Amino acid sequence: MATRVQVETSTMSITKPRPVVAVEEVRGHEEPSILVLYERDQEHIVAEIAAVLGQQWCLIGAEDNNASPIDGTVIGISDAYNLSRVQRWRGSSTVLATHCLDAPNPAVGSRSSICDYEYLYTTKPFFRRDLARFLSFILGQINPHKDLAKKAKTTLISTTFPDVHAALPNLDILSVGADAIEIRVDLLKETKPDGSFNEVPSLQYVGEQLMTLRQRTELPVIFTTRCTKENGRFPMDDPNLFYDYLYRAVQWGCEYIDVELWLPEELRRKLASQKGNSKIISAFHDFSGNFKWTSPDAQRLFEQGAVYGDVVKMIALVSTMQENYELEYFRSIIQSTYPYPPFSGLNMGPMGQLSRALNKIFTPITHPLLPLIAAPGQLSAAEINSALHSMGQMPKLDMYCFGSMRATGQAMFFEKCINELSLPHQLVCIEQSSQDGLAAVVKVPHFGGAYINPPIAASAPCLPSISDAAASIGQIDTVVARFDGDKTSLVGENATWKGIRATLCRDFVPSAYSGQAALLLASQESQAAAAIFALRSLNIGPIYTIGFKVQGPLSGFVTPFRGLEDVKKVEQP
């Protein structure tokens, strides 16, 4: 019989605050239905998954052949169960196979055909934040691609190490300025017992490498299997080999998979139909030196990649500066003709470095600490920023910090980031935070934005527009400067609530909080406003307050604390 165990554990701008509070909540509040396949002596992973989801859990024994899903409960099934019966659960439940890689004889992929996803983990140490991120992504409760699409420019750093472990000591430094991290599967080297290397690393070795990388970074992962013709090491004689690895990347929860355009359309179509919440980068590389951006083939290749791609990447080896201008003309045609998908276009080689500075979608960057560059002519983030500044494409800006930033060390952190990325900007610290002080600096010709602590009232007259969140919270702690040609627009924002929400979602999926009660302590409403907004964005309620009263637009979301009975309603998800 089943044994149930309780686990304890908009950016729209407006000109003035509105009485109606706009709170973007998690998409759907239904508890996900999860079936977990666990290995021998690994029952604890079922409890961990349930804890992250904020749900109950139970185990099904080998004799429970007629068991069925239980609403709001994570079901755990061991290897002893007749796994052929699991097929009937697919569709109504998300089937998740788990593999402990520090257990004896792990068998990664042994149940991939009967599951939707596979989670790879270690027990010593166990990274709960990695599990929370994995579950949030496969359940569609976070969307990294949507977040990156809002940025004016994105970059990726490629790990070109034969063993990811070699990158770990410097990973935080390597990834500064990157929006995603690429694992070059074809460059991994799996050692045989005799000391030689496999031509293609095994799926188990690749899974271990990917798990190690994901446990140490919060960046979205791009899973790449580059072929020999396109400067990689994966053999091209068996296209199904690429499918096997790329589909496994989807099951492992990779945010992006790099699908080369030469692969048969049948395989590309199949991957597109099975990608889940992963996104496809349709990739084309030409190393012959004969490709021309002015040829009809260029647009045909883009259209071919756009059929199944969420991003189309086209890269060519060039030998003249003129070919950079031809690429920019091609880019302008594509962007004006096809609003979707986004286009990433680059030229390789020393003559193509200009295009790396001008490209805005997933520009590959390198770093001096990497063992080799992933492609000819690749630049670091610092080199790209220096080039943009020298061409007048990145003018020097003054960034302002209001408050005791020097005393807390925050200013030093900001300056370190600016210097690491060779940004031309200057950080200006002003000890006092006031509307008058902000009104003076926003008129400075090279004003590039501001961070304000403590925050100022959302009614600041010096800002023509503020975000919905800032209006609802009633406070501005960030001023965002947006540039469009010679025009600059300023938007008052509140970033504190985003930090609070992100902290809450590091160890739990967003839906774990839905309908949960919360207790909020503060001495005044201004200290708690951002927290109330963050809690409501996760559909948390009721929210009991202690030490303050809420008078503003957030008052409809809170209830004054009454006594011990209210405390009993507050528990961890």
Automatic annotation (TrEMBL):
It holds the Pfam family DHquinase_I. InterPro entries: Aldolase_TIM, DHquinase_I, MurA_subfamily. GO terms for molecular function: 3-dehydroquinate dehydratase activity. This is Aldolase. It comes from Aureobasidium melanogenum (Aureobasidium pullulans var. melanogenum).
